[in-house]
């Protein structure tokens, strides 16, 4: 047998894996494209026309490395949120930033608290640095704030993850509850508050920023409300000393200039964001109405997706498979209790039309199978 | 004093640093833009017009996450290099890929062999995972293949880094020498062969690919010859089992769709690449002629930059500062022996004109200061 350069024991122990299978992979397997792409909580309404313009202009400068400090974008974000540029680090989407946080705080065996059924990519990064996941079941369809806090204290966990609004259920806690949660955590537990869906949530769900609090990192993204998932731009707001720690390990020249320009243009087009949020809200209502028309309930959502309760795991699984067979891309939670639902992203009317018809068929097929 | 969530001891020990200060940071400090941007080995000739078009088209799809397998791009690269898609992983530039390799192979204390004065960003990633750098001085202006090999054997190092052509000196080894080096390394030493400047080198400097060899990772990029530094797209060619290891830790959705499309378009426009390579070659000759006209020698280069020998460290430092004061962005090596040079990237004629005039002035000022 050939001898090989040795991976670290940790790397050796990890599976070659992917937190999510990409829809392109499924399309290649099926040999045809999806008719509706509603599975990855992308924003099919698309970005502002000003973003498209900004990308076209920035394309002429792609020969330059992007500004490693993302200075213009950070200044605009600081102004937007009433904090300072030193409170902000920009990175390759929340996914990339979660990986950096995991690297800063996790050694093999470090306890990390999250919800059972919470964001798989966070768990992927925790495992990737050898962390020990401590999971707290949802309370109904809500992440369990009290349970997360108790686990953080019991484990003396340096990292605690909460998404608000929640993915995959779409539920949310009001700011007052989140703030009480923050204040109940040990000073030595860093809360990763993943607000990927912050813009689509009611303002009442978002606590005020506390730019000097050393144990909260708020994560935001241009992937959802701003429809820039394919550009990979997220950012963290936190206390300056913690934010500086990212400079110890980040890929300094990792942010493309095109991405910085697109994100800045997106941030500046408030009118378009407002229009998007109206579309998202209207589409959530339509998805709830489609569920109701099929005698099903849906979970009230503050995100750009709706979880539809199919009544049980087996039915939900059959419905999702039926939708995929009908070239409609959706996903579903895998965790007991949550797994009675399928998760459908908002999107343009024509794709929702396709979903509506396919959903009724898939439901009927699922029931006939029983 | 406030208690804080504890960074890992390794993270705590790292400085908040940046391997290179960005030219934008220097421009902000100076309060005015550079007149010539020739310091970061970017490609000021710019990308193919087809790349600009591809970016414009892809902009309409930025709401989608990029294909996490970079399937189309990997297929094209496999065809280009006569290997299989399973031999290739695409990532966020060579910088990002170097970070992943470091993570796969380095634990605190792991010995890693590189040249004294070699690529600082590689050293940054090695330090970031707690590796112990073992450095081998250059032999003249060449990376010392024999010395690197001896160090790898003596240290039983799982990682050895070589750039060919070399950065910062621009020198290169012929393929036969590189192949002998590869074959002399222990089976348990992984060679990172950084070929960022592979396209600008003579074909005779690039060994044949050995897609089943488990201890070589060849790194390429779209940042240099293809002028896409600001898009962050690099790739690694290696044996499939090693390539699969990247799937254990990479940010699977980290490659923007726009970047994948731009890189594919760049790869396909052979005529434009050919034109670029002619421009690079002509500009290297012009930079050498400028050095000669100032009674200085330059180091023969297979890259898109030229190291000009200013005769000594102090003069080179003064010349670089003089150029910066004259709004000409260049950099220089900091390592004794190499530090007698400044490093000037190729670029369009008008920027080289600016350099030429400022260089003569900076040289005269440096000599008057002595």
What does this structure look like?
Two copies of one chain form a homodimer. In chain A, strands 2-8-7-6-5-3-4 form a seven-stranded mixed β-sheet, sandwiched between helices. Chain A has a three-stranded antiparallel β-sheet with strand order 9-10-12. A two-stranded parallel ribbon of chain A has the order 1-11. By secondary structure, chain A is α/β, with parallel strands linked by helices. The first copy, chain A, is built from 13 helices and twelve strands. Chain A is globular, with a radius of gyration of 21 Å. Chain A has two domains: 21-41 and 271-369, Aspartate Aminotransferase, domain 1, CATH 3.90.1150; 49-268, Aspartate Aminotransferase, domain 2, CATH 3.40.640.10. In chain A, helix 4 (71-81) packs parallel to helix 10. In chain A, strand 5 (159-163), helix 8 (175-184) and strand 6 form a beta-alpha-beta unit. The mean pLDDT of chain A is 97.
